[in-house]
Amino acid sequence: MKAESQSAPLSEGARGLEIEGHSIDFIEEHERTDKLSTQGPFWFVGNFTFFTMTIGFVGPSVGLNALWTMIAGTLGIMFGTLFMAFHGSQGPHLGLPQMIQSRAQFGYRGVILVLFATLFVFAGFNIVNLVLMMQGLNTLFHWGPMQVALAVTVPATLLAILGHDWMHRTFKWSLFLSLPLYGLLSLAVLMGWVQSAPTPAGSTEAVALGFTWVGFVAQFAAGASYNIAYAPYVSDYSRYLPKNTSSGKLILAVFLGASLSGAWMIAVGGWLAEHLHTTDVLVALNAVGAGFAPQLGTLMVALTILAFLPVIAMNIYSAKLTTLTGVDSFKKIKPTPRVRIWAILFVVLLQLGMAVAINASGSGLSVLNMYLVVMLYFLVPWTAVNLTDYFFVRKGRYAIPHFFLPQDNIYGHWGSRGLIAYLIGFVVMIPFFTIYNGTDEIFVGPLARMIGGVDMAWLVGLIVSGIAYYLLCLSLDLAKEEQLIRQIESTTPHFSTGKAW
């Protein structure tokens, strides 16, 4: 765990029990003790979960067979991971959580717009996760929603409170637990040890699966949005890497880790959805295990949820950082462990309340489909603006102390360029929106109808927001900013940012 910068060094034994002292503040170089070798496995585990299998259920639900689900999902995951991985390179370079750095594009207070979007992502992931577990465990073992919520949320909350280093440790343990579990499951599928379930009476859906462009793009978008949604997370877990960490190697490590496990789990999920005719992944896993031995299904479900707890904690941890950034944007706060704990409790109570309400409504996979699509719409303009600024406008050069100045900071209260580019991109996406609740249409934009209902909104948003921000920044006085940055670096060299590449 990382002690606050002014604290005296601790012995190894004491450090093992320490709660992380940092939250949204800058991480000094002497505290950056993480290793590049941890990043690939960390993000591999982040996607190596039963929830990622559920992304593979999207394809069969819209007409794709398992093969096309695997192809579309793999391409989508790889595309989304590109954005996620490039964001990850910002962590060691700046030593900041992702959303603090976004103040450069959107302003000290203007960042609240994207904070709402990212909080929706962080909290939303856990809400959907909890709903899926509530429904699956109720079907299998008749557990009530509060039983599930407490069994999952309490240990995950404690882990989020302990903080960054414990997150990395438990992700390592989760890998050791889940690799043999999902390895055996994958082997069973490949070897044909898992028998297909009989087609439900009166159902023709199972034999109708094949290829459709609408289904292919829907599965591609679900995969892409799943890892684009990790974009606001990555710097939170790479900011403890040394400043001189190679950007190229870090990007490659994050990309390989997150895309390989994501493609693997989506492929397994697509097979389970097509051959077991279920929309509940926990029920499917139980059926696979029970096919070998009566109690193996229960054990498989239990291990699946246990291995998933660190991911629940990760969502809580990043939601906490987003919440604190939002509060700090209007009322300056001291980033102490106590403040972190209160923010975590707020996030957890919010998630629990919404999960119980959604579970009571009886929604399931349809909520997941809608959530992934809408999440992508909100995140796309932000990721385009942020990456354009970091790699093409400011090129990694930032006045880090000014991210924490409520007054007289060079980025202003409201970053008009970023906010305008975000809104332009989002508005231009609306005619391309394609939102369904299962097979029921919620909203399909006029331009989406013209191209056969294929969802291209996210691609339009990426292009338009990025270009709009770049053009708006042509009037930006970068020479003035550079002069100030050099002045900061000459007086406080630990704030030196160098170049993005």
Question: What features would you describe in this structure?
Answer:
There is one protein chain. With 501 residues, the protein is mainly alpha-helical. The chain has a domain at 39-198 and 206-373: Orthogonal Bundle (Hydantoin permease), CATH 1.10.4160.10. Helix content is 66%, strand content 2%. It contains 22 helices and 2 strands. The chain has helices at 12-15, 39-47, 50-55, 58-61, 66-88, 90-94, 98-101, 103-106, 112-141, 145-162, 164-190, 213-228, 234-238, 247-276, 281-290, 296-328, 337-361, 365-393, 416-429, 446-450, 457-472, 478-491, and strands spanning 434-437, 440-444. α2 (39-47) crosses α11, α5 runs parallel beside α12 (213-228) and α9 (112-141) crosses α17.
Strand content: under 5%
- Give the spatial strand order of the biggest sheet: 1-2
Q: What letter string, H or E per element, gives the SSE order?
A: HHHHHHHHHHHHHHHHHHHEEHHH
Summarize the main sheet. 2 strands, antiparallel
Level of helix content? 55-70%
The CATH class name of the domain at 39-198 and 206-373 reads: Mainly Alpha
Rg result:
22 Å
Write a compact overview of the structure shown:
With 501 residues, this protein is mostly helical. 66% of the residues lie in helices and 2% in strands. The protein has a two-stranded antiparallel ribbon.
